Amino acid sequence: MYKKKEFDKRYLIIIFVFVIALLLVIVSVALKKDRNLNPVEKALKDSGTFIVNVVSSPVNLVKNLVKDSREKKDLYKKYKKLKEKEEQIDSIIAEIDNLKDERDKLKKELELNAVLSDKVYKNATIINRNIDYWYDEITIDKGSKDGIKKNMAVVNYDGLIGTISKVSNHVSTVKLLANENMSDKISVKIKVNNGYVYGLISKYESKKNSYTVEGISENVEISEGAEVVTTGMGDIYTSGLFIGTVSKVTTDNFDLSKVAVVKASVDFNNLDYVTILKRKDS
Q: Which residues are 166's β-sheet partners?
């Protein structure tokens, strides 16, 4: 029994050495660059490549998905930052446009003040306007403490707006010329050649932003675009306050006098600053 065991051990050692030697030969042969692969090697190589591809494909897919997800998150963060900047830019642009609009209006008011140098005037800002009475009245930030009195004329750089109807210490209410329930007819004159023809403003139409001037009895040709201003008759309006321009001329129902449609010079939907006028002798 003892001899059989010794023989088996030696046999195993010889086999192990032979296998190692064979592997070394195979490796040494495989290291030759110009050697052609035998069928077994080709099969092993192709199988190994296939196995590597099969194993690596899911890994690469997961890696690509993770990479795409990160890129999308980064892009979304950049998009949010750009969107915030865009909104900030839009807000700044709107603010700049608003400031430019206010600057232009104030500039025109100053120019108007220069034109009204022969009159007593007071500048004011509109502080309230009721949506239900949009074309009826506005509230300004000047009152009796500022020398404002009832029935004073109110204008802006475009022309006549209306009159002071109510006065308190620090604010006043302006009855607009655009009031469709006009109770007092306003005397105006229309430029014709070297003179004027006279009439009365009887109503205002907000949809057309125009006045109707009636009672023009003179038989003269009134051209489109003729200027219309106040006559100065009465105790409220001084002479020469701009009303608008003639857009159409017809005759009344009795064909006795002419009726003029006058396009208002003032945009009653866009009022911010006004000027209150009074006669110097008042």
A: 173
